[in-house]
C-alpha cells in the first residue's frame, strides 16, 4: 500500500467548523507557535504550553495573551499543585513555586522534579496528578516497534510525594493524553497504534490503566492481535494472551492526543462525565482521517460509543486541513476549550440550546408537570415536548420553565424531550 503524507495546509476559516446542533464555536485567543496542552489555574486563568516557542502563555481574557515563562525545553503539559506549576518538558518534569502572580508572570527558578530519557520517535512528555496526589508521567516509545532499553519508555510512571519511582503500566506506545474519570477515579489514556500495518490497522486505543498491567506493544495490538513479523520481525505472539486489551478502539491513524472529561454545568446533563478526545490527524493514511474532536460516551465509567463534537478542519475533497486539535478541556464557565497547534488558535465551544436542570422535571398537581432549566424557550421560536415520541400539551412556557400536561394513563419511567428550534435535551422522570 502506498501511504500519503499528512493532509496539506489550507487557510483557516471559522465558518468551516462544525458542531452538533445547539453548540457554537469561536476563537478565544491565538497563541503563536504550537499550543499543546492547557490547564486552568486556581485563579481561573487559562494557561497553555506553547511547545514551539518553549514558553507558557496565559489567557486572562478573550484575545489577550501574557508570556508567563520562556526558555523551557519543549513544554507539553502543565498542572498546578499547591500554588506551584509543574511542567512536563522533553527531559522530565520541572516545577515553579509561587506560580500565581498578579501580573501572571512567573519569576522564580525552575526546580527539577524528575528526569526522563530523551530522543527517539516520540519526544513529548505528559504529566497529571491523580486524585490521591501522586504524579503520573508518560514517555512514548523511541520507535515504531522495538524493545526499549529503558523501561520508562512506552510506559506510564508513578511518583509518590517522596519522589519514589514506580513503573505503573507498560506496553503503551505513545500515551499522549491522560485523565482520571470523575466518578470511577480510574486513569484513562489515549494510545497511538504503530505504522505500516495498513489504513485501518492498528486501531487507536483508549486504555483504562491497571497497576502492573502490560498493554501489548511492541508485540501485540488491539484485542491481543500479534504484530505481523513482516513489520516487526522480533514480534513475540506468545505474549499477546497476557496483554491487557484496549477499553475502546478508534479509527486507525487518527492520532488521539489530549483527553478530558466534561465536568461543567452548561452542556446537557447527558454530556456530563463523557470524554472529549482530540484527533491530531493522520500523516500516513491513503485517505486522511482525524483532524477533529470527538465525544466518547463514558458517563457510565466505560466507553460506550463515539461521535464527532468539533470538526470541519479536514476537507477530504482537496485533502487539506486548516487545523490540528491537540486537547479539549472544561473551563470553569462550563464551556469547552480546544487547542490547535497548526494555526495557534484556542477555540471556545459553548452550548446555546435547552438545558434541563438536574432532577428538573416534577409534578405540580394532577397531571400537570413542570420542566425547569436554562434557555428552554424564547419568544418566536418553536417549542415541542415529547414523551416517548408522543407530543405533549404545553400549558405555559418561559426561558426557565415549561409546564405541560401528561396524558392520562402514562405512568412509570418516562423520558421527556424538549425541542426548541436550536437543539434538544431530554431527561427521565417517574410519573405516578
Would you kindly provide a brief summary of this structure?
Helix content is 0%, strand content 44%. By secondary structure, the chain is mainly beta. It has 2 domains: 8-351, TolB, C-terminal domain (Neuraminidase, 6 Propeller); 355-431, Immunoglobulin-like (Sandwich), CATH 2.60.40.
Mean pLDDT across residues: 96
Summed up, the helix count is: 0
Query: What composes the largest sheet?
Result: 4 strands, antiparallel
Strand order within the widest beta sheet:
2-29-28-27
What is the molecular shape?
globular
| Distance, first to last CA | 62 Å
* Proportion of residues in extended strands: 35-45%
Number of strands: 37
Describe the structure.
This protein has strands at residues 8-9, 23-30, 35-40, 46-50, 55-61, 64-69, 77-81, 84-89, 92-96, 111-115, 125-129, 135-139, 155-159, 165-170, 178-180, 187-191, 204-208, 220-221, 225-226, 248-250, 256-261, 275-279, 292-296, 306-310, 314-315, 320-321, 325-330, 336-340, 345-351, 355-365, 368-374, 384-387, 390-391, 393-397, 401-405, 412-419, 424-431. The protein is an all-beta fold and 432 residues long. Strands 2-29-28-27 form a four-stranded antiparallel beta sheet, with no helix packed on it. It is globular. The mean pLDDT is 96.
Amino acid at each position: 500500500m502506498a501511504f500519503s503524507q499528512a493532509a496539506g495546509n489550507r487557510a483557516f476559516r471559522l465558518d468551516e467548523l462544525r458542531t452538533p446542533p445547539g453548540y457554537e464555536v469561536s476563537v478565544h485567543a491565538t497563541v503563536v507557535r504550537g499550543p499543546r496542552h492547557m490547564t486552568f489555574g486556581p485563579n481561573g486563568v487559562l494557561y497553555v504550553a506553547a511547545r514551539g516557542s518553549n514558553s507558557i502563555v496565559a489567557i486572562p481574557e478573550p484575545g489577550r495573551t501574557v508570556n508567563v515563562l520562556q526558555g523551557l525545553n519543549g513544554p507539553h503539559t502543565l498542572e498546578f499543585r499547591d500554588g506551584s506549576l509543574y511542567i512536563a518538558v522533553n527531559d522530565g518534569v520541572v516545577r515553579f513555586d509561587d506560580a500565581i502572580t498578579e501580573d501572571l508572570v512567573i519569576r522564580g527558578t525552575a526546580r527539577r522534579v524528575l528526569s526522563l530519557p530523551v530522543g527517539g520517535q516520540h519526544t513529548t512528555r505528559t504529566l497529571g496528578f491523580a486524585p490521591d496526589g501522586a504524579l503520573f508521567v508518560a514517555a512514548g516509545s523511541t520507535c515504531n516497534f522495538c524493545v526499549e532499553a529503558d523501561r520508562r519508555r512506552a510506559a506510564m510512571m508513578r511518583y509518590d510525594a517522596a519522589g519514589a519511582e514506580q513503573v505503573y503500566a507498560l506496553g503503551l506506545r505513545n500515551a499522549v493524553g491522560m485523565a482520571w474519570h470523575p466518578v470511577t477515579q480510574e486513569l484513562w489514556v489515549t494510545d497511538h497504534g504503530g505504522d505500516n500495518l495498513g489504513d485501518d490497522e492498528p486501531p487507536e486505543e483508549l486504555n483504562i490503566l491497571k497497576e502492573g498491567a502490560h498493554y501489548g506493544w511492541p508485540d501485540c495490538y488491539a484485542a491481543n492481535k500479534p504484530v505481523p513479523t513482516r513489520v516487526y520481525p522480533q514480534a513475540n505472539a506468545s505474549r499477546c494472551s497476557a496483554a491487557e486489551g484496549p477499553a475502546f478502539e478508534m479509527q486507525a491513524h487518527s492520532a488521539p492526543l489530549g483527553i478530558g472529561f466534561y465536568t461543567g454545568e452548561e452542556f446537557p446533563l447527558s454530556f456530563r462525565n463523557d470524554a472529549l478526545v482530540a484527533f491530531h490527524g493522520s500523516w500516513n493514511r491513503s485517505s486522511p482521517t482525524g483532524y477533529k474532536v470527538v465525544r466518547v460516551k463514558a458517563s457510565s465509567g466505560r466507553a460506550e460509543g463515539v461521535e464527532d463534537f468539533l470538526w470541519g478542519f479536514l476537507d477530504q475533497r482537496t485533502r487539506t486541513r486548516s487545523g490540528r486539535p491537540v486537547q479539549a478541556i472544561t473551563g470553569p464557565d462550563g464551556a469547552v476549550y480546544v487547542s490547535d497547534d497548526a494555526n495557534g488558535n484556542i477555540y471556545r465551544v459553548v452550548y446555546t440550546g435547552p438545558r434541563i436542570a438536574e432532577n428538573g422535571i416534577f409534578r405540580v398537581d394532577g397531571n400537570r408537570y413542570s420542566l425547569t432549566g436554562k434557555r428552554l424557550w424564547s419568544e418566536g421560536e418553536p417549542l415541542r415536548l415529547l414523551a416517548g415520541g408522543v407530543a405533549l400539551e404545553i400549558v405555559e412556557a418561559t426561558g426557565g420553565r415549561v409546564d405541560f400536561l401528561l396524558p392520562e394513563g402514562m405512568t412509570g419511567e418516562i423520558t421527556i424531550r424538549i425541542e426548541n428550534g436550536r437543539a434538544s435535551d431530554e431527561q427521565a422522570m417517574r410519573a405516578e
